[in-house]
């Protein structure tokens, strides 16, 4: 059977969480696969996806897969994976387990099955579906028969009542959830990987290792989302310290919390410690000294500290000394293309009428942050829900899932809020 090795690259946000992959047409011909055929993807583990032609002309050795498929294949961006035509069986039955607490009543299970028809899976795969403004994550715990199976209308789908994790786990944010920051994603990834994985090389060269990265830019432009996606994609532990919130505590309470976070991060390394609103802590001389002491005493590798601030010039120069926050990445307001990508991400969970022009909306939303656009999309979705289900309790997320596929967002829904 023919097979090729391809280098993993990002997926466009609009195609994330759909179980598809984009491959160069020359490679598809070599593998004797047509658009819509299933391919077997082999990294550290085996998974599958539906092959589609690449977006544009891309190198023959590149494959576009999203973060969920990358996780299922045990592969990272820039890794090489093996691709071959898959031997697919019809799924008689699939059993899913929710990764977190979620509603698993019959109508919801039927809605999820309809989202999965035509897709392929193998036991152990993670499935991630955007439902309205939420992301629902499941794990395939059993398939009948075994191997790579395809979901059909006749397939029986069962969702277990018990989630895999009783407590809220790390949200499954992937790079494709971070719109308009492709260059920043690559830069942060390179810096974090460098800190986590190149200590031996740097030591031989006599270079002291940096331990921190500073993200700066306006509120709501994706600093937290970018840090979280990086932790997920690199499969490292994530510790989130919210500067503004901790400053409401006493000095001793804050120190205890900081020491605890750093100790756990070292114990569970590799880890990322993300300090949001770093400037809130830095203005307190005693706390700033304690935080820098903790950073200076981190092990040579295994832990990266990412700090987030709104304006770079408000941070004391001590934080920028060598081996501290000497790496800086600006996270700017999204441009038109960035806003278009963000709109695609947040409106992905519902259908759009033909007159919805997201490019036009991106043009009309100059000055909007990513957070502003997320709020806009949620308002639009709620308006569409109320039009179809006026009696539904939207605030409690109680909607008739059996009819959810019938909801359509109209251009007028966007214009109503944009003209406020």
Task: Describe, in plain words, how this protein is organized in 3D.
This protein is an alpha/beta fold. The chain has a six-stranded mixed beta barrel with strand order 1-5-2-4-3-6. Strands 15-16-17-14-18 form a five-stranded parallel beta sheet, sandwiched between helices. Strands 10-11-8-13 form a four-stranded mixed beta sheet. The termini are far apart. The longest helix is centred in the C-terminal third of the chain and has 19 residues. It has 14 helices and 20 strands.
Topology:
Elements: E1 3-9, E2 20-23, H1 25-30, E3 38-42, E4 46-53, E5 62-64, H2 67-73, E6 80-85, E7 89-90, E8 93-98, H3 106-116, E9 120-121, E10 126-131, E11 134-144, E12 149-150, E13 156-159, H4 182-197, H5 199-204, E14 212-216, H6 223-234, E15 237-242, H7 243-246, H8 251-267, E16 271-276, H9 278-282, H10 285-296, E17 303-309, E18 327-330, H11 336-346, E19 351-352, H12 358-364, H13 370-388, E20 408-409, H14 411-418
Parallel strand pairs: 1-5, 2-4, 7-12, 8-13, 14-17, 14-18, 15-16, 16-17, 19-20
Antiparallel strand pairs: 1-6, 2-5, 3-4, 3-6, 8-11, 9-12, 10-11
Helix pairs in contact: 4-6, 8-10, 11-12, 11-13, 13-14
Keywords:
single chain, 420 residues, alpha/beta, Barwin-like endoglucanases, Vcp-like ATPase, Chain A, domain 2, Rossmann fold, 4 domains, six-stranded mixed barrel, five-stranded parallel β-sheet, 14 helices, 34% helix, 23% strand, globular
């Amino acid at each position: 059977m023919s097979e090729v090795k391809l280098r993993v690259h990002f997926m466009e946000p609009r195609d994330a969480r759909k179980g598809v992959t984009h491959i160069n047409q020359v490679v598809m011909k070599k593998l004797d696969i047509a658009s819509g055929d299933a391919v077997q993807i082999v990294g550290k583990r085996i998974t599958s996806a539906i092959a589609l032609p690449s977006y544009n002309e891309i190198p023959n050795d590149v494959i576009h897969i999203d973060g969920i498929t990358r996780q299922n294949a045990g592969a990272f961006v820039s890794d090489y994976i093996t691709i071959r035509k898959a031997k697919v069986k019809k799924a008689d039955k699939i059993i899913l387990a929710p990764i977190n607490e979620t509603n698993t009543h019959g109508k919801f299970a039927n809605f999820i099955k309809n989202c999965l028809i035509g897709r392929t899976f193998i036991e152990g795969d993670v499935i991630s579906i955007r439902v309205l403004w939420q992301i629902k994550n499941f794990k395939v715990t059993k398939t009948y028969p075994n191997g790579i199976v395809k979901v059909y209308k006749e397939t029986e789908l069962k969702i277990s009542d018990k989630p895999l994790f009783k407590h809220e786990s790390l949200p499954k944010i992937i790079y494709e959830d971070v719109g308009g920051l492709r260059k920043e994603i690559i830069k942060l990834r390179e810096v974090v990987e460098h800190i986590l994985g190149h200590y031996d090389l740097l030591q031989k060269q006599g270079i002291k290792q940096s331990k921190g990265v500073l993200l700066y830019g306006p509120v709501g432009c994706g600093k937290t989302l970018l840090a979280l996606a990086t932790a997920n994609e690199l499969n490292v532990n994530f510790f989130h310290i919210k500067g503004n919130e901790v400053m409401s505590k006493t000095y001793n309470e804050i120190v205890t919390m900081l020491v605890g976070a750093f100790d756990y991060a070292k114990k569970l390394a590799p880890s990322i410690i993300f300090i949001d609103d770093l400037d809130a802590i830095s203005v307190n001389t005693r706390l700033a000294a304690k935080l820098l002491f903790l950073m200076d005493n981190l092990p040579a590798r295994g832990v990266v500290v990412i700090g987030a601030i709104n304006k770079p010039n408000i941070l004391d120069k001590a934080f920028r000394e060598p081996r501290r926050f000497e790496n800086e990445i600006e996270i700017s307001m999204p441009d038109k293309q960035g806003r278009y990508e963000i709109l695609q991400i947040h409106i992905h969970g519902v259908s759009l009428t033909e007159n919805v022009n997201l490019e036009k909306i991106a043009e009309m939303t100059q000055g909007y942050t990513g957070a502003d656009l997320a709020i806009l999309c949620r308002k639009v979705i709620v308006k569409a829900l109320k039009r179809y289900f006026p009696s539904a309790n939207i605030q409690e997320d109680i909607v008739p899932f059996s009819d959810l596929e019938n909801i359509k967002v109209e251009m007028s829904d966007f214009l109503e809020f944009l003209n406020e």
